[in-house]
Amino acid sequence: MRKYEHGGDIFAENRKVLDFSVNIDPIGMPRTAAEAAKKAVKEETSYPDPFCRKLTEALSERYGLPSENIVCGNGASDLILRLCAAVRPGKVFVPAPGFSEYARSAALFGAEITEYSVPGFDLSEQYGILPLEDSLLQLDLVPEEGTLLNFGSSRAMVFVCRPNNPDGSMMSLDDLRKTAELCKERGLLLAVDECFLEFTDATSALALLDRHRNVIIINAFTKTYAMAGLRLGFMFSADTVLLDEVFRFGTPWSVSAPSQAAGIACCQETGFLSEARRYITEERKRLISAIEELGMIVFPSAANYLLIRDVRASQTDAQSNTAPVLREELADRGIKVRDCRSFTGLDDSYIRIGVRTKEENTAFIRALEDICNRRNYG
User: Fold this and answer.
1) Which CATH class, in words, describes the domain spanning 31-267?
2) β strands within 186-283, DSSP E
3) What is the third-level CATH fold of 10-28+272-377?
4) What 3-state class would DSSP assign to 191?
5) What is the pTM of this model?
């Protein structure tokens, strides 16, 4: 049975909805990128460049890395799958709660999945899930002499998401550096997902690549430049052997010509992201204030999304098992939010919303106020 666990499944709807289940840039795609994609559709009659040469050059200039340290793909999820196919890790550590594609992709290639608790979620008592450092110290792995990669062997790999999805918590660069050192000592690969990082002011893990060949960084324009429909992801690593393997496990034309053209245009944008960060910061603050005033918990977030817990609903559930489900109440009002039940440790009392436009955010706040009023007086 096919099951869709992510946000944005508007195709299952037979009506117009406000889609807060996705977490892409609310400003939308840059005009230059949209125009470049349209031009590529009209003019391109040949296959797209399988090596994404012009795009890779543009990414190289933007991020300050040699082209050989970059590989492109059809979104971050494509590259996560290809990374797991290339490495075939015997054991993979993934955040809980966290993005499900890490575990799903690794499990497809036979990996044993171990979850670790992210800051703000103590899952040790209910699930026996330890913090990352405690989990890693239980491993008895060391790197093979002369290499950090041995394809086909039972290697271990760690996924870290900065900021974490779905809660928006941020591992500091200092903590990430310590994690990278620990992984290096114990022969582990460290895959850092930074698809949402450019919505923040945090420093990228790119700073670690000079000293850590075991670090892989995954990024995408899908979220930051609202290219969800076009799809464009890219991966950075100092280990070119690893990147060659990741490339080999992709299809020959995984990045379309319109996506490559739009990506090049995004690399040349100068003020777009700073404007998006300012907009998201202001609207995130407004949403948090309004939601907390209604008595709900909003988890601290550095990202363009918020994890919300409907505390009163969970208390009602504990007392009578007839709690109203906030997700369904919002759906009745034409608002789609992220169902969080697929995340470890989260139940029906949690939802995740993307920070949308001012008008959409206002509509969400009003719908939430209406729900709370009806619960109190209905």
Assistant:
1) alpha beta
2) 188-193, 215-220, 233-237
3) Aspartate Aminotransferase, domain 1 (3.90.1150)
4) strand
5) 0.90
